[in-house]
Each structure stands twice: as structure tokens, then as C-alpha cells.
Amino acid sequence: MVSRVIPVDDFDLVIFGATGDLAHRKILPGLFRRFKAGQFPATSRIIGAARTEQDDAAFQAEAAAAICDYTGTDKNDADLAEFLPLLGYVAIDAKGEGGWQELKSRMRPGAVHAFYFSVAPALFGDIAERLAGHGIAHDDSRIVVEKPFGRDLASARALNATLAKHFHEDQIYRIDHYLGKETVQNLMAVRFANVLFEPLWNAQYVDHVQITVAETVGVAGRGSYYDKSGAIRDMVQNHMMQLLCLIAMEPPYHFDPDAVRDEKLKVIRALQPVEPGDIVRGQYQGEGSDYLTDAEDPASRTESYVAMKVRISNWRWQGTPFYLRTGKKLRARTSEIAITFKAPPHSIFDDSGVPKANELVIRLQPNEGMNLKVMIKEPGPGGMRLVQVPLDMSFAEALGAEGADMPDAYERLIMDVIRGNQTLFMRGDEVEAAWAWTDPIINAWEDSKRQPEPYDSGSSGPDEALRLMHRDNRRWREIRS
User: Fold this and answer.
1) 3-state secondary structure the chain
2) pTM of the shown model
3) Does residue 67 sit within a domain?
4) Is there a domain that residue 212 lies in?
């Protein structure tokens, strides 16, 4: 199977914070890969904007080094030589007037205009105000904003209000790279394009759902920053919330940005408050590597791990629990969604052949793909012995060589911005609803003054998280890569 490349229109993309880590690791390499794939014309322009004083040639050299580092491209690559002339640079004072007229002179009439805010949220308002005030942005312009979208409901509302002063909601693209993953989008295809699954996608047939995002790295080197957020703000409120919504949402009337986001919003508003006994927080510990040292605060109560049981109050999911867990310094790096179906109501086999429940596992990383566990007869003579086997589909293998080189999430999402497609981006009311559900959880924890449960680096998390499942006669899936 050969993946198709659908070209986008000619564009001018301005990257604020173009000398930063995200631009180097993801944005510039992603744009180069899309150029190499032939997805946008060589007339397009990519303009870096940051405080550093440098000219176009210096920025092109900086971009070339980043692209070579993060894509493995040779510095003498012919496609790289064609790509670099598309890049320009303007030194910008985000809080002042320096550089804005020069930026305006670089923007070409007739091209799609997009502005990527790869900067701290504190600068969003300043940049938005100057883009509007200097007449650089217009009614068809798009802005891309990175998380965090606030740190609570009040700050999220303030941020939305700031952006709304200068841009309409249909111009604002709140990017969550998890939604750009091939597997996440395939989750919608599996549900809504196959009659096999959708009739079973409800509390009558689904026993429970597990969502796991596990990391092997700690927070060393950025501990003071991470300590201000923690696992709930960093992962649950945004990435895991989006995955939960895609699993639990009702079929939209059409694959349309607002239709999809309307259904996601209904899921968030149907979430029950989390009971204190249904959440576990932890901090990693270990010889030479513990959270308190990495966070540079021996009294920190910020969690590096969180597990919780979530319930959805609607007809489809009443009675089916969703278990979420995420953490640093765990056994393996993996992100997956596991839908465990209920066991058959009656077994016709003897005790040696009791069927196990079917399970659909959706792997986001590593090795994106899907795995459906079914029961079959174990080969050979000697009676009816059942064994559970996976029907495995790795996207890299199933789609062949072309599929193995699938676009990175940022590549796909940036191209969607140029197309004007907001389906995989969060809407303002969606962000606020997520914070409205998350804030009471965080506030209750802060009021309790409890210290997070310790867990060993390289483990599966705190023992309390295991008990969270055991009391429901269930078990977490093993964390493995």
C-alpha cells in the first residue's frame, strides 16, 4: 500500500521562537520532510522570528544543522540544498516594536499566512496584539499555539480571551501532537468505518478501558519547570483527555472539525468527579535518581506519576470504568489504549478451556499499530484446548516501505494548519471544560497535604496504583516497549 501525498497551497509560515528547542527538534525537520515528500511548493516561505540578531544565512545554517541532527540527513543532501533558500529570518522584539515592519514586508499577498507561537504562553498576547496592530495578520490568517493552555480554568479562560481579542476561534489552532499520531486517527477509522466494532463499543460489551502513557526518562535538567505542573497538568488534562474523548465520543454526524469537537466536548462534560480513593499519585525514587533531587525541592509534593479511575455518566458508558496512568521513570517507554471486552456470558468448554476476554490494544508508541486478542483452539491433538493469540497489525509492516516512513505528528498537523482543517486541534470551550474537570482533583490533592507515594525508578509505579485495580478484580497491563 502506498501512502498518498496531498499537496497544500503556497504559504508563508512565521515561526516565533525559531531558535528554540521545539523548532529545532520538530518544526523545522518536519517541514523539511514535507518539502522532500513534495507536499508544498518551493515558492512557499518559512520565516524564523526570535530575539537573536542574525541574518537569513545564519538562520539557514542553524536550521540545516538541526535538520541533519534530527532527521539523519547528510549536509550535502540535494533536497536540503533546495529547501534552505525557502528560509528567512527576522529579529523580533515580542514586547516592543522592533522587527515588526520588516516582518510585514516579508509577507506575500495571496499566500496562506500562518503564525506558529513556539514561545512561552506569557508572550501569546503580546505577539497576537502586534500581529493585528501592524496589519500583518488578517481575517484568513491562522495562529498555532502550543500547550500549556493555561494551568487552571481561570488562566485558560484568560488565555482564550486574550487570543479572542485579535483572532476568531476558527483562526486558532491549539496543537496537541498526540492527535497527529497515525494510530490516534486510525482509532476513529476503526470505530466509525467498520461495522465490526461500533455495535460493541459500549458498556454492554466493554468491561473496562486502560490508557497508559509511560516514560523512562525523569525530569532532571528541567525539574524546576516540571515541578510547577506535575503529571496531571502535563499529561492528563490534555494528551490523555484527548485520547479518552476519542474512545468515548459518540459518532459525529460528519467528519467535520466542529462536529468531531462537539462530541468530544460532550464526553468531557459527562465525566464524573474523581473520588479521592480513585486517584494515586507518586514520585520516583532510586539511587542516584529521585524526583526530589531532580526537582531541586526536597519538600515537593508534585507528582511524577498519576493513576486514576474515571467514570462517564452517559448511556453509552455508564458502569464501564476508564483507568488512566502516566508517569516518569517507569519500566519502559510506551503509550497505548487497551479496550478489554467482557468475557462470553457462558462457556461451552471445560475449565481447561475457559475463554479469556477479547482485547483491542492500540499502540501509539513505539511501533504504532493495533492488536486484537482472540481465542482459538491450540493446535494439535488432545482435546479442545483454547489459547489467546493476537491478530497483530504494525503500520510499518502493513503499509510497506512507504508506510514505515510515516509523517511525524507535527508534520501532519502543520500541513492541516495550512489546509485550514481544525479537526485535530482543540477548541477553546474544550480546553476550558477539561480544566473545569481537572481543577477540583488538583485542589483536593493540594488541600490534603499528602505526600505522593514513592515508587522505584524502572518499576510500574506505586503499589497503591496496583491496589486501585485489584480492588475491582482487574489488573494493569504490563508496561513494556
Assistant:
1) CCCCCCCCCCEEEEEECCCCHHHHHHHHHHHHHHHHCCCCCCCCEEEEEECCCCCHHHHHHHHHHHHHHHHCCCCCCHHHHHHHHHEEEEECCCCCCCCHHHHHHHCCCCCEEEEEECCCHHHHHHHHHHHHHCCCCCCCCEEEEECCCCCCHHHHHHHHHHHHCCCCHHHEEEECHHHHCHHHHHHHHHHHCCCCCHHHCCCCCEEEEEEEEECCCCCCCCHHHHCCCHHHHHHHHHHHHHHHHHHHCCCCCCCCHHHHHHHHHHHHHHECCCCHHHEEEEEEECCCCCHHHHCCCCCCCCCCEEEEEECECCCCCCCCCEEEEEECCECCCEEEEEEEECCCCCCCCCHHHCCCCCEEEEEEECCCEEEEEEEEECCCCCCCCEEEEEEEEEHHHHCHHHHHCCCCHHHHHHHHHHHCCCCCCECHHHHHHHHHHHHHHHHHHHHHCCCCEEEECCECCCHHHHHHHHCCCCCCCCCCC
2) 0.91
3) yes
4) yes
